[in-house]
Structures are given as C-alpha cells and as structure tokens.
Sequence to fold (153 residues):
Amino acid sequence: MFGWLDVDQLPLEQLFGIGACVDVTRKCAADRDYQVSVEDFQQWEAKNKAKLEGRIVLIRTGFSRRWPDAVRYLGTATRGEEGAKLLHFPGLHPDAATWMVARGESPKLVQQRLGHSHVSVTLALTGVSRAADVNSDILYRQGEPNADQLRTS
Fold:
C-alpha cells in the first residue's frame, strides 16, 4: 500500500540506530488528548545534552499500559464513523511535526504520526517544499507494547 515496503522487505540497517525516548507520560495522564510539542523535544535535548537529528525518536505516552482496553486506550469502545468522533488519545502537535521535518525527519513518518491521508498534506501543512525523504521507507509503530519500560536517556 502506498508503495511502502513490508517489514520483512526493509533493509536491516533501517531497523537499528541510536534512539531517543521522549517521555510525556505525566502530561498524557493529565490530558489524554495531549499533543507532543516542540518544547518536549527541546527539553529532551537540553536534559540529554544531545540533538535528536539522526536518532530514532520514540515518544512514551504511557498509553501502552492501557492496552487492550479500548475505552482506556482510545477513549471509547464505539466503532465505525461514530466511534472515530469519540477517539481521545495523545498525538503530535503540528508545530512539532513542522519542527521535525525542518530538522530532517522524513515527512512520510510525520504524515503517519499526524494521520494525514497523504504525505502531500503533511508537506503543505508543515510549509516544507522539499520532498527529499518522501519516498524513503520508514517503519513506524504506534502503541508499542512495553514502551513504558524504555529508558529516556
């Protein structure tokens, strides 16, 4: 779908790298619709005295502990079009997406995090005119089990 590779087709080197775990668990506990901000990324960089560029950025929301309870994880057990209107879970603020793309993150990955229907929407909304990384193959997982056990530094 969309010309993306299946996991078994990805080059092994794309599955390994230096990671960064940005922990927004407390913010998400206080606001289940919390949107990860540029400030969250900048705080990680300041705390760790390192840049996020070139790292695999993982965002810990604490929501993995809520799975598989749909009401706790998604905010509703209702399915279909009506259920989509009732969803409540953390996301990535558009300003943070723009910041990530401007610093070299793949627009395709940001597209998936924001839930845009096509990468062109992400490029238009983030004000990015270049599409150098649009055709790269990215592995992105949401709701990763045991994400709460990752180290943040």
User: Anything to note?
Assistant: Strands lie at 19-23, 35-36, 56-60, 91-92. DSSP finds seven helices and four strands in the chain. Residues 7-141 form a domain with the Glucose Oxidase; domain 1 fold (CATH 3.50.30.50).
